[in-house]
């Protein structure tokens, strides 16, 4: 007798499992009654664990279940307690039946890995990849008997999983409308998140709400459960696929919502693999920052030797533009002039900064560039910008121009000029190019054939995931590194393409020029535990004038600006303020000149999401350490254990910190002290941070 | 000097307005500081009201603003207080620039309307359409100078608005990726909602959460603000467009999320109008139920005279199937046999019920019909079902077979047979057809050419909005009425096509057969204020046995089952239980035989969302009134003022109510009393309702 499908599903609620009921409602009377009913009446609710994999230390376990209707779910436990409850896996296709039910396990393979690999640059030099992997093969029992694998890699600090769909006649091309992946967070939690698919892309202040109040969020999404466990959900290796967002579903679970595209968010021929869906897990907030999970799930370096990219600092014609003192467009206030740039080159050379970024250097900025990026020419400078002469002027001083390719989202137009533009830049000694995609969400312009129709895409859609890799690969051929602004999210592809060195992808320093409000004190302390988990950010720190347009105060102390160089990791760091402002703060400027940009090691000494953080990093190839600490609007004293210093050595600690009475509001934000102390491993450094404050420390070995 | 677009937007937050800040944070210090900064620095934040329209009674006002960057927003006030804060309007297209900014008002027209129209059947006979309309013409100041109108109609109990886009060379076809419409609810609120785009479509228990905890919701979405105002957000006249869902955005606002489709959720040639986006507003919860806003925004009757549709009751081969006592498929337990159906016809005839629904009557139910709706034949009965003979048997007894067209989502297959299937049915005296679309969300099967590729659609996507109207129009040609299950949401199109008489579209009675859990006591009391605001529901009430499969208790008292006939409106009401069960409850059955199904008038005497409700309805064309009251799990006594009775008349109140100690749990759910009282206008009837209980009353004039 053919049963009505509703019979097979048991109940109409999205989580037809005993476990789900108990987890939602505990052993309440309703639940017990339901339990009995379910046991008696609903064999489908009984799921069977068909595969498992645990972390190397055994504390994290992933279990895969198939229930009575052959539906697959995974769950994650830590020390035996649920972290992720039963969560769905599967796909809705446009061009085929959904891949969800009537599955059976057709084999599994467990492997272990423990390797160490080296980053050509980064927050640390050596990265350990220590995980256990489960590869589970599934096949549909009915229909076309389609096959797919789910691969789980479990690390001591988290889990990554992805789907791998082999070539098969019944699924030659997958048009993925919805990926049914869920993350059913087991406990109530606090969430730090920014909204997805809204006009200002990633440039929002993070919201701190209960998990229950998350609407539609971007990743990384960071959580702290009610029992203090930190989680961050993200993805690794976003290649030829739509970016993943997270929507809260009717049962409180987080569901994947792919960035839109046409004819479907994702179109892939088999065989294909999805990006890795990642859940980083740590008791300490700092553990999220220290994790290498995302990088470890990316493919190894495809570019080979990349010593042509030098982690470095740069200055440029940039802040003046955001202050509205100079313009991108030509005219009396044009910023990108030969003379202005020479001054910048001189300033860079005098202070040992390698790069000079100049925005507005090329044709296309006059008129309404925002509305029409098709006017940009990426190879032709404006008449008042002697590109070739300036490149030579810079070269003679050991300085390199940093290129600027603002597309204003006329992306196909950019792609047509890109290669010759990189060729030109390379000839001129340009090693790094900052790209830009300034336009509202959903306004990327794609034109497959010149003169053909223009279609709109999303910054994090599948088409743009491919565009960015076309850019990065072409740049690599020219030995050019890419710093993408208004980008796609970072998912660790810098491992595979180590010329993809940095990106924006959050509300950055420019908002301190003209934003209403400017970035509040907790913003950067939140970024460290959210945006920065994805990868380096070109935050462009160091605005020592602490003032934006028309006298608007930047909500930061002076010492905080220095801390950003350590707190917010990037292999290229801007010395962003006007030269004349640095002249007013010589002590602070000294730290900026001294701070390293490439590291052997990084560790979080202390921190809580959105409250405060102190990070220590060891300069690559030198025995120096740097510490950066940043604070929200509550003054506090941190006790930092200097256990990272080499034993038996003494160090001079050059401490740049908030002065007495410092505060992010008013003139008090300039209260600033530079002092020195002698310290050694085992010492505990007491560091007072003002409201909206920070501290930056350079530790130099005294002996030898 | 060309400004950076970020300058023009002022801040990076999605709500760059003074009003928004004040409304969110009150006159806090942060807000005042922001206010000053905004006044000094950000002309764009200053918006100008360019158009207004108020309700006839003047209490509700809609204001349209254009801000400094030409971006349009609407807001809704009631008695001068914000109900909806500044909310965005606009579109993201795939095939053109977004329609959002740089708009100017190019004219406006205000009109008033006060008409009354008659429903051929319904919860009331005469409907007053009293509103003020504002039609505002907008044109882009730049680019292609595209034009569109926004039309607002304001009633004393709510607001409806839609976009109208005229034919124009720069926008010949709109591929709408995202409709940017928002509803920025001004106050904290409680929300009753079901999740959108999840596998079980609309068949979820309603969640009651704070508005802040809404994730992605279907409409109607019902709210009660913290100052007691009731709102419901929905749409009217969903024609050739994707169904609207509501997602909570980063600023707490509700944003429209259209049901997916390809190449975009909506593809329309200009000129086109969107559905009306509706906000029903009432101090009383009952006011939402009594509102005619949705119907009034639909086009008038296109079918002309529809007396061939008779509001009526029906029985059928249905509950036995859900009890698993009989089967849809052929075999020993086949429900749809000639003999079973004859018995049903006899039962119907003996009790004055017009219709007999038989499910499983046709070829295609054997095997896994759920997986393959393409096997259904809508014209061929099974060998053990004498369709023609049964039609004649029924006709001789004044009974009509109700047709059943379960598609199992093989929709294109159904469309190919539909017309001949209706022809056949009409010849056999079938007046009503129940259709079905049983499959998971996103699994509708569309095949544009026979043998061609099969694409998947969504139940509430644009393609299905058109499919349903093709069915309804074709059925109308055959004088057949449609009762659609697993349908698209009701948006009032029964006004335009009064043969579209009812639908399911929520978790119905069938879940009481096999659902885990069955429908809890508050479910139906919530449906009245949510699902039922959209239109009639074929809930299939009257399971007087109060028992599902394998003895599972239905969470309802006996009197509650009778109340459903009045509480949950439908012009076709099933007498759903097995005949032998009615024989066990003759008193209750009498009410079911007596209750009307078509009304002159309906009013809510008392009610709170999800708690309790009492509705009074006057039988159409007769001086009888019926009252239905339903209760959540908290026993209560209602004091119902019988002010609706005709003055100067006495009525016999035939009261069917919960007996002493009645309760939805256990044998106590059968405690039941029938009593009579004489009442008159002005009396207050005290009505005790058990936990999970109800009452049904028939009021018959005593004099003349």
From TrEMBL, chains A, B:
> Where does the source fall among the domains of life?
Bacteria
A GO term for molecular function? carbohydrate binding
Please provide the record's keywords in A-Z order: Signal
Xref: Pfam families:
GH97_C, GH97_N, Glyco_hydro_97
Q: Where do the Glycosyl-hydrolase 97 catalytic domain residues begin and end?
A: 318-506
Glycosyl-hydrolase 97 N-terminal domain residues are 53-300
**Has UniProt tagged this entry with the keyword Signal?**
yes
The record's listing under PANTHER family reads: GLUCAN 1,4-ALPHA-GLUCOSIDASE SUSB, GLUCAN 1,4-ALPHA-GLUCOSIDASE SUSB-RELATED
* Protein name (database record): Alpha-glucosidase
UniProt source species: Thermomonas haemolytica
């Amino acid at each position: 007798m053919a049963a009505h499908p509703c019979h097979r599903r048991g109940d109409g609620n999205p989580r037809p499992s005993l476990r789900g009921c108990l987890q939602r409602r505990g052993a309440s009377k309703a639940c017990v009654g339901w339990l009995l009913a379910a046991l008696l009446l609903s064999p489908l609710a009984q799921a069977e664990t068909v595969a498992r994999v645990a972390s190397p230390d055994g504390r994290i376990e992933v279990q895969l279940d198939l229930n009575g209707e052959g539906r697959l779910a995974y769950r994650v436990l830590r020390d035996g307690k649920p972290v992720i409850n039963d969560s769905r896996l599967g796909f809705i296709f446009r061009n085929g039946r959904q891949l969800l039910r009537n599955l059976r396990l057709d084999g599994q393979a467990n492997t272990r890995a423990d390797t160490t690999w080296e980053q050509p640059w980064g927050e640390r030099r050596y990265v350990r990849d220590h995980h256990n992997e489960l590869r589970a093969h599934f096949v549909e029992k009915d229909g076309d008997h389609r096959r797919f694998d789910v691969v789980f890699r479990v690390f001591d600090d988290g889990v990554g999983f992805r789907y791998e769909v082999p070539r098969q006649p019944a699924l030659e091309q997958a048009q993925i409308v919805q990926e049914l992946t869920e993350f059913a967070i087991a406990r109530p939690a606090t969430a730090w998140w920014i909204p997805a698919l809204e006009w200002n892309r990633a440039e929002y202040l993070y919201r701190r709400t209960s998990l229950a109040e998350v609407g539609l969020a971007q990743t990384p999404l960071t959580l702290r459960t009610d029992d203090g466990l930190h989680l961050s959900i993200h993805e690794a290796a976003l290649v030829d696929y739509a970016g993943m967002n997270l929507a809260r579903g009717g049962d409180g679970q987080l569901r994947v919502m792919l960035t839109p595209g046409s004819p479907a968010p994702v179109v892939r021929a088999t065989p294909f693999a999805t990006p890795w869906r990642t859940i980083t897990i740590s008791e300490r907030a700092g553990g999220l920052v220290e994790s290498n999970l995302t990088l470890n799930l990316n493919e190894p370096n495809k570019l080979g030797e990349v010593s042509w990219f030098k982690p470095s600092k740069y200055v440029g014609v940039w802040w003046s533009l955001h202050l509205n003192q100079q313009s991108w467009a030509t005219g009396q206030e044009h910023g990108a002039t030969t003379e202005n740039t020479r001054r910048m080159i001189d300033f860079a050379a005098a202070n040992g900064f390698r790069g000079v970024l100049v925005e507005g250097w090329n044709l296309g900025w006059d008129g309404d560039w925002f509305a029409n990026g098709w006017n940009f020419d990426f190879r032709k400078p404006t008449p008042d910008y002697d590109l070739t002469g300036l490149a030579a002027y810079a070269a003679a001083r050991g300085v390199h121009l940093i290129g600027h390719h603002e597309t204003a989202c006329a992306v196909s137009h950019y792609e047509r000029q890109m290669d010759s533009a990189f060729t030109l830049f390379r000839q001129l000694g340009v090693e790094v190019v900052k790209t830009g995609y300034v336009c509202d969400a959903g306004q990327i312009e794609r034109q497959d054939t010149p003169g053909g129709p223009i279609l709109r895409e999303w910054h994090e859609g599948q088409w743009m995931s491919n565009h960015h890799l076309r850019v990065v690969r072409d740049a690599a051929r020219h030995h050019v590194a890419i710093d993408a602004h208004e980008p796609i999210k970072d998912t660790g592809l810098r491992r595979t393409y180590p010329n993809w060195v940095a990106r924006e992808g959050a509300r950055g320093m420019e908002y301190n020029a003209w934003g209403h409000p400017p970035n509040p004190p907790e913003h950067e302390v939140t970024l460290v535990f959210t945006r920065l988990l994805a990868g380096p950010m070109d935050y462009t720190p160091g605005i020592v004038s602490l003032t934006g347009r028309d006298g608007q105060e930047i909500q930061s102390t002076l010492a905080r600006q220095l801390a950003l160089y350590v707190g917010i990791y990037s292999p290229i760091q801007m010395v962003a303020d006007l030269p004349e402002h640095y002249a007013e703060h010589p002590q602070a400027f000294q730290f900026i000149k001294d701070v390293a940009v490439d590291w052997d090691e990084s560790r979080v000494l202390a921190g809580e999401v959105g409250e405060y953080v102190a990070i220590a990093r060891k300069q690559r190839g030198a025995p120096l350490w740097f510490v950066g600490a940043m604070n929200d609007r509550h003054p506090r004293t941190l006790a930092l254990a200097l256990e990272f210093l080499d034993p038996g050595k003494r160090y001079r600690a050059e401490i740049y910190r908030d002065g007495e009475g410092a505060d992010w509001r008013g003139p008090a934000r300039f209260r600033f002290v530079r002092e020195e102390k002698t310290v050694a491993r085992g010492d505990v450094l007491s560091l007072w941070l003002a409201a909206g404050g920070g501290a930056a420390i350079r530790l130099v070995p005294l002996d030898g």
